[in-house]
Amino acid sequence: MASVASQQDFAWQQLGIIPGVALRLFGMRRSGNHAIVGWMQRNAPGGRSVFLNNCKPGSDPFRSFRGIEVDGAHAPQHKALRDMASVAGTAGNGALLVMSYEDTSPAEFTGERQVSGPFDEGLLTRNVVIYRSFLNWSASLLKKMQGNSGYSLVRRNAILLRAMDTYTRLLGLVEQARDLAISCISYDRWCGEDAYRAALLGELGLETRDNTLGTVQRYGGGSSFQKEAQSAEDLQTDQRWRQMAGDAEYQAVLHLAARDTALTDRLSRLFPADAAVLSGIAAKAPMANGGLA
């Protein structure tokens, strides 16, 4: 009978390495996903890592990623899709593996359809959820889409409202993190607290090699607000909602969010300051004169 070790070796053959730490990451766009992955890569065992970016939910992550990095550098995606081991194998056994999913909650997948398709979830070291304060996340996402001329106002808001629903479900996972053995990373705290980042590295089984915020990641066009910023420490990530406060479209989004009790209930526990702002908005009429006349 094959040993457990040999079964695991076979499972990793497609990847070309046996990872020392294997993380599956979930986070909404504009929640600092790539900044946090970059930090993980810098603190990987021996600096060696494989990152599969934006995997397709419900499919084999080794065949459905939208980008790949090996040891922190971009690697040829098409070659990796044809022969993963020839690309990822250069990282060597013991490297960090990160598989990321965007705008997806694993809670949406049950029964036969699993979020990573046929991949054996038992091989994972941890599942990780990245989350960000609602006001700053929604402001950043809307600002990003406003910069895309191909997105009409209706399309932008359809995307944002759908994303809000998934965001709410991700917060539900954060609240159940202890029971589900999920590691949760608050992007807001990650940006502002060195000790918080250091404790997370220990929880994830990573070394402390470079606990800085690093440089601004260029995935998704970088910062929606500070295009010229180079250092992540220069980003005013906690001020996005204030910078969008005068935007009529953003105000309309907040009026809807303020009336979503599933969202505001979870925010009251995880982001009470955000919940307080939305509570104040809910108490006001969306239109200045209180009606359509």
Short description:
The chain is of the alpha/beta class and 293 residues long.
Helices, strands, pairings?
Blueprint lengths: L3 H8 L9 E7 L5 H10 L6 E5 L7 H4 L2 E4 L2 E2 L2 H6 L1 H5 L7 E7 L23 E6 L2 H13 L6 H23 L1 H4 L1 E5 H6 L1 H11 L35 H4 L4 H10 L3 H10 L1 H11 L11
Parallel strand pairs: 1-5, 1-6, 2-5, 6-7
Antiparallel strand pairs: 2-3, 3-4
Helix pairs in contact: 6-7, 7-13, 13-14
Description of the structure:
This protein has helices at 4-11, 33-42, 61-64, 77-82, 84-88, 134-146, 153-175, 177-180, 187-192, 194-204, 240-243, 248-257, 261-270, 272-282, and strands spanning 21-27, 49-53, 67-70, 73-74, 96-102, 126-131, 182-186. The chain has a seven-stranded mixed β-sheet, sandwiched between helices. It contains 14 helices and seven strands. The protein is elongated. With 293 residues, it is an alpha/beta fold.
